[in-house]
Amino acid sequence: MDTTLDVKKLARDERRKKRFEKIGLYLFASVGAFTMIAPFLWMVATSLKTAGEVFSYQKPWWYDWIPTSFVWQNYVKAWKVVPFARFYLNSIFVVVLTTLGQVTTSAFAAYAFARLRFPGRDKIFFAYLATMMIPGAVTMIPVFILLQWLGWIDSYKAVILPGIFTAYGTFMLRQFFLTLPKDLEDAAKIDGCSYFGIFWRILLPLSKPALATLTTFTFMGSWMNFMWPLVVLNSHEKFTLPVGLAYFQSVHNTDWTLLMAGSLMMILPILLLFVFNQRYFVEGIKLSGIKG
Amino acid sequence: MKSFELKDTTKETLAGYGFLMPNFIGFIIFTSLPVLASLALSFMKVDLISLPKVFAFIGFENFRQLVTDPYFWKYCWNTVVLMGAIPFSIAGSLILALALNQKIKGVVFFRTIYFLPSICSGVAIYVLWRLIYNSDFGVLNTLILKLGTLLHLPLKGPNWLTDEAWAKPALMIMNVWQSVGGYNMILYLAALQGVPRDLYEAAEIDGANNWQKFWAVTWPQISPTTFFIATMSIIGGFQAGFDPAYIMTGGGPNGATTTIIYYIYNNAFQWQQMGYAAAISWFLFLVIFVITLIKWKVFGKLVHYY
ipTM greater than 0.90, yes or no? Predict the structure, then answer.
């Protein structure tokens, strides 16, 4: 019976085990990454194929998905077949106004809730909180009836206005404002700074990360929003991108190359926004996770 | 000199209402009043097409119809079945987060890639998956076919989106792909980074292996996050399913992918049954309300755990 411990061998085994674990980890992470990105690669590839090539699989499987000749023309065609440029402009218009409106009114209201004392404040705030769990489906029908009564159906107003006044944005910014130190504001108040001055010159500059997060989230949600614009818009020239793309699909059901080109153009701004603003996404998610 | 000076508290009150006003007016018009109106509508028969428009009080008729409507219960069942993707999605998120929480290079790179599907979720992605699931030349069935030739087996992929048995699994697979690397993974990652290191060290001294460390330290420590993710997913799940089904299946085949929200949409905006749709939306609200109450109760306890 050998009782001497071969320390060197043990250490080597340990190192070897660690290395195997590391390789396994990278392998796993890479397979995961491939699974996530493969559909997108296929999307890009399909958007550059000829229409006939989509339906045939002639070449060996491992480079089958690469287009034989890159048909950039598909993108031009997608813009011509449906008024894609128009959809794009509509989406930008709607999204920018929604985001601007939501961030502004939310910041104002959040300041009132976080810093100012007035009768009924806590009751109103509770009402805001309570509505956060009400499904959108509940308010959707009365708001539609209201907009119809106002004659606003099939207008940009109908898409933008209901999207501006969310309790969520107010809540998020209020929580952030509460974490900021009050000393600066008190000093400013003694110096005779108005409430608006405090809000504008002290609170907002300190809240840039939270504002950026809310802006990013609102922009993204609004860009992807499908159901509400679908409900309130009727004329093609007013469609936002998601509704326009759905319409495109219903008319050119099997023009897969064009559909993929159109889809890609729709997600491109979101991809760019994400790549450059990633940290705000991560922060925003953590913020939303804390609320409980 | 000013001849008239407001008291400080009055000034603050005025400022408070002033700052609140823009949001509050919108909140009243587009949220509070519609909630009440929706409750009223659920007791009415509404017809916006005929002139003059009909708003007639019919008592509990809509709710009676709801209880006896076989389609409604079928679509409720669909919604619940589709939520079967949630455990897979959560488990996947945790596994990915555990992988990224190891000291590996390129964490930001992997995180970015994993996040892509959830960031892009929307009509464009559903159009893409309609093509992926195409039974004749979609990439999925092509791969299955080629695997078959490789193994000399007559493998043939199903008609994913047009076969009643396969439509729901198809949407669930897509849902897992979409959500696994998104918000939940980030939440898990944050939670994992918050687990105190000395707990692991103590476990190591006791001779625990990785598996034991996970179940004895990690899992209980991140349980509030798991609970939060699970309840949020369930709340979301009850309201989900409109966008993908509208784009990919039209709610079919034979209503197999129609969910509660899709049924509300159809009733309200396709079939002019707004009163009935309002009643369904209140049923949905009730379900979510109950889950939220449970969440608050349990979450209160879990937070005390710290």
Answer: no
